[in-house]
Amino acid sequence: MESGNLTLNRRFIKGVPGLPQCPDYANHPNLVTSFCLNAKMITALCEDSNNPQNLEQFNTPCPNKTICMNFKTAPDPSIAPEYEVFAMCVDEGSVKSFNNNRKDGFFCKTYKVDSVTNGKATISVDIYDANSKLVKVRSISIDTGSQHGSMQDTNNYTSIINCKNGQKIKTC
Fold this sequence. Notes:
mainly beta, four-stranded antiparallel beta sheet, three-stranded antiparallel beta sheet, about 0% helix
């Protein structure tokens, strides 16, 4: 789980490690979206400038000591209120994790959130198995005491919450 806020332009800076890339600049230069293929790989969907329906997938490996996490941005107030989803590799030291010791059941953990900017934080929960592959679970939920969100039959959940430094968040 990671907190912070990131404004996503549809194109990241080319060549920056840990960010989705569209390496076919001549034919598919525009980043549409990205997602984690596994804990160490981002998949970027890139569109053709002349034909936006023509999409190509490109995989970008995460640098050492990073983990791929899925996020979403807050909607831009000047356009339709839609979230943009994207993935990026996050430093392992910034990621909170817990191990269920390969047991089935219901697991919860409470985390303290730091590095909050302007009273908002993006919380991302990605579920990986022992082989670093995304694995679907019955439900993921986040509870801050004043805000609650959940998603069923998924391998990740991300939410933008109102938050302050030191606030505790329960994840199940």
